[in-house]
Amino acid sequence: MRKKRSARKGSKSLPKQLQYRDQDRLFSSLEENLSKIQQEMGHSSDLVIRRIEAGTDPKHSVALVQIEGLVDDRRADEFLTKSIMVDSAPMDVETPFYDFVKENALSMSNVQLVSRWEELFHALLDGKTLVLGEGWPEALCADTAGGDKRPVTEPALQTVIRGPRDSFTETLSTNLALVRRRIKSSKLWVQSQQVGKMTRTEVAVLHLEGIADPDTVKEVIRKIRQINIDGVLESGYLEGFIQDKTRTPFPTVYNTERPDVIAGGLLEGRVAILMDNTPVALIVPTTFFQFLTSVEEYYQRWDIATATRILRFLIFTISLMGPSIYVAFKAFHPTLIPTELMVNLMAQREGVPFPAIVEAFLMEITFEILREAGIRTPRPLSTAVTIVGAIIIGETAIRAGLVTPSMVIVVSITAIASFATPSYSLANSARLIRFGLMLSAGLFGLLGLTLALIVLVAHMNSLRSFGTPYLIPVAPFVPRDQKDLFIRMPWEALSTRPRTARPLDDQRIPEGQDPEPTRDPKEDDPS
Amino acid sequence: MERESISPFQLFLLVMLFELGSAVVVPLGLDAKQDAWIAILLALVPAVGLIWLYSFLHRRYPNRTLIGTLQTLLGKPTGWTVGLLYVTYFMYIATRVLRDFAELLDASFFPQTPMMIETVLMVFSIAYVVSLGIDVIAKTGQIFACLYLLSLLVAVLLLLFSGAVEMESLQPVAEDWKRIFEAAFPVVYTFPFGEMIVFTMLFPYVRPKSNVMGTAIGAMVLSGLVISLVVATEIAALGANIVSRGSFPLLTTIAKVNIADFIQRVEVLALLILIVGLFFKIALFFYAALIGAAELFRRKSHQPLVLPFSIILILLSMMIAGNLPEHIQEGLKAVPWYLHLPMQTGLPVLLSIIALIRGRSRKAGV
């Protein structure tokens, strides 16, 4: 065995160095190796080293190294018994123990050899089990990654009535499988890389070869490779690094926890980015209107889906401009309100000490506080928040004459509209912009509001997501893609992929797929 | 020149927005009394020829703006000077429209807000949008053009359905042709149709270059028809006398809408039409002045000029006239004759003649 090692060394002419370096090879002494591992890991308590005497005659010192919790114990034991604790009957004296174990182990699946320290530590921290032996030039490393995983559950954010009920988990391999299970094509390509110097988080880029725009795929991978950071903990980190423009309230990367949304996006020629340790996946290029559609619209009948979609545009408009329109009319243009309504509104204002704009800000900020409290409050206390919110804000503020009932109505409708926006990230942007619009409407009336809207639309027009204009297919106008924008045409009419992602292959449904009435079998019957 | 482009469809909508812009809010061609709508259609005829002239120049020099064409045809120093004149002209018209806007807004919806505030708000919004480039202006214009046309359509339809329109007010038709002719030329011919000169700065950005002239003429003719229709509706609803005396007849007309007490107070449509229309009209003049200046002073981008030019715009709009009557008087009596006619028609005709002679001599020379 000694001879062999020296021969290897000789052939690669690697001088033995005393200092430890990541690039260096393992030592031949088991004890030296183990103490190096322990030293590098700072004698961490979750580092498990099991020493085993294997073989019958002579005994061989072997050590098993793994990290507790990252390893599936059952698989590790299986590996151990199959590779080392084998029946020594076939072991003859001529074959050295190491060669025997190596051959035996490599015949199993998921076993590799590692010879460098860097590889060894990466393998160890990825949840693999290492086997080192006295005098071995390499370590055996078996993929026994396991540990506790959250099972696939129902999506918490993007719920649907009709549609699949599974959502992504924190495990990348599970998530990839969820997508693969939906698109069983060899054209679904997955390219992985690790991001974060410390976290080495696995990030997978998915696309459909032959459909997705190769330049976009390249650009996504390039941008992810360029990320140089100590760690990424959530896909929000990635989003921040790959988006085209930072200084904007609008999200330019779509995120979802639903595998069917990812699959749908891939089929449209988009590129998906999945990350380990988070159930939120990203998809690019993104347009504004993507945030206003819900996947369920593709599962429902088209006419109902269209009605829901139009409703949703209305909802978004309300959540964006509800209070500002109210304030602008009430404070600046009471003459533009029909007389009876105006008299009613003015009567409510009797005794209210604040101008409409202050009232609106008070109520909106109160609501935002309540909402934030609702998210952060520990479960057992949430009832208290609800009661305080409902009673104090709803009832007492009006009775005390601090705010008008109509303002409470407007703020409540806006709040509900905000919750009804299908994308949480867009609803958040709308929340932020709402305050800006309220301010301009409160200071300058409808003039301020209209100008602010023009500026807002111009700003959205200046945004791009991986080269795709943010407001496509409205501006620039793409007539072909109108079939799936404000209205969702029947499936047989959605024959082409949207231009949004610049797909290589446009055709989605070949000609002549229109549904036709089922033929009555009796008519076919010649008798 | 900046590397951006607009599509023919966007050009079409921009022209519509630009032409309708201020033309539908102010009384136009009312010197012809109830025949104002005929005067508008009459002015449209030579205006089509004018666009033909502009696009002739554009076809000769497809990649040059007006400023570039001037320098090619008139030689460096003369062309540069005339180019500077054009930049000043665009700035001045932007200022005039801005003043129109502030005066109208002040008189109609915001009597208590100082005019300065309205002006500053408008200019800063325009400055932001314009600094984002022609691509963004065109895309934004496209969205708001749809909103604008929809509002106009709804307003006209509501008027027709509310029974406020009386066709008798439009009679007698074509009473005095001399009067109609005098109303059409030069005022209606130069404003709004002749102001198309500003698009000679934008034609080079249109891609594909297939049919710039057809698009521009189509959009102009359509907007001419719409203006004529709107003016006719106003006259039918209010009578020519009231329309000619008001400063914002569209608002007065829309205020008459009342359908069964259910649809009423739709003046907000007029406000929307006013703000959106004038926004894009000022923005286009302002942008033309900016890229013209950038080209004259050999700047790669027009962005550094946005802020100083905005401040000039604000101050100038406050200074050009002491009060509204003075402003209107200048706009109707002096500007069409001494500014619009030479800048919109005179110089382009001269340029075309030079271009023709050059083309011929080049052919003969070779």
Question: Overview of this structure, please?
Answer:
The complex is a heterodimer of chains A (527) and B (366). With 527 residues, chain A is an alpha+beta fold. Chain A contains 16 helices and 12 strands. Chain A has helices spanning 2-12, 30-40, 73-83, 97-106, 117-125, 172-182, 214-226, 235-242, 259-267, 302-332, 339-348, 356-376, 382-399, 405-420, 424-462, 521-524; strands at 47-54, 60-67, 111-114, 129-133, 139-142, 188-195, 201-208, 254-256, 271-275, 281-284, 464-465, 468-469. In chain A, the strands form 3 sheets. Chain A has a 5-stranded antiparallel β-sheet, sandwiched between helices. In chain A, helix 6 crosses helix 9 (259-267), helix 12 (356-376) runs antiparallel to helix 13 (382-399) and helix 12 (356-376) packs across helix 15. The longest helix of chain A has 39 residues, at 424-462. The radius of gyration of chain A is 32 Å and the shape is elongated. The two termini of chain B are 31 Å apart. Chain B has helices at 8-23, 36-60, 66-74, 76-108, 115-131, 134-161, 177-193, 212-238, 240-245, 249-254, 267-296, 303-319, 324-365; strands at 258-259, 263-264. The radius of gyration of chain B is 20 Å and the shape is globular. Chains A and B meet through helix 15 of A and helix 5, helix 6 and helix 11 of B. Chain B: Keywords: Germination, Membrane, Transmembrane, Transmembrane helix, Transport.
